[in-house]
Amino acid sequence: MMTVRPLLVAASRAEGSDHWRLRHGRSCTAAVCADRQLEMERRRRAEQRGDAAPVPTDDEALLDDVAAGMVAGTIDWYDVADRFGRSLGWVRDSWEPLLMTRWVVLEEQRAPSGRHGTVHGYVKDGCRGPGCAAAMKDDSRRRRRAVAYGRPALVPVGPIGEHLDDLAAAGVGMPTVSRQAGVALSTVQSIRSRSRPMVQATTADRLLGVSASMAATVDSSDTRAVIAELLLRGWTKAGIARQVVSPGATVLHIGVRPRTSRANHDAVAALLDRPWPGTPSLPAPMWPDDRVVSSESAKALLLLLAEAGVNPRRAAARIGVDADALVAMGERTTLGVIGRLRRLAAAPHQPIVRPRAA
Ligand SMILES: [Zn+2]
Ligand SMILES: [Zn+2]
């Protein structure tokens, strides 16, 4: 089971680093960053399947607390996502409408202007509270319609730049954004670097129309993190290739290039949902909570058995598993195999009663 390593996340936040943010740096090799990515992937998949944990929408006290924390800058969407084990996008989409009025009230208390929660509050008053920021984002989307009726306009570059930052954090490169939106790469880059104050509303709309899920490829470090997790769970690279590429594949080329197609990434990530790896070196579960573990003790038992004159092929026949389970044993095997080997090693030459198949 993958974990987020909450302590590492906390430590990383305390020291002021951004490891806890989703893929904060492309070149970051910290394990906590990879874990984080994988955890978010797991949450997103659970949401797609519809079996993610429910999130309360009627707990007024909780909503008040979160709204206050966000206006004060002590809580952000990552905290909400972590609290409920949900994806960032999901909590933002479902909770933003619930928090909006609360933000506006709190921003008004902090700096009375009567304009919080509006574009004016963001642009003219310079409020960067969550209420005004949300209004600004909404407005940028609404402009799409205004422009369709022939009202060209300039919009501040801020929210568009943030949208580009979000896309980059989700693994969408600026050349891809440029291609998807039909906006020149130099324009995209000048917006991302905020080297210009305003941008054409038509350009802004096209850029806002690009979403992370539209990108045809993902950064391969995401795919490699998924593959690493699968290997930990007992898959072999050849086993993954057989499942994802073709039944006769022996070498896994996915994740080797800098970018991986979304289709391939999703196919590999879907294996995370399989309860048991599809590889001949791991026999099927022998009881309901049989699991994949390090093969170290199994290998030690095989040595003992070899000394007693029982080779792995013979041992496999004796304990009722495929020869591959012992002959081609990798870093991982199952608790079931270890249990049966232990019994065999205790009395290598006595006939054993074959355990019932699970
Ligand atoms: Zn990092
Ligand atoms: Zn405000």
Automatic annotation (TrEMBL):
Keywords tagged on the record: Plasmid
Name of this protein: Uncharacterized protein
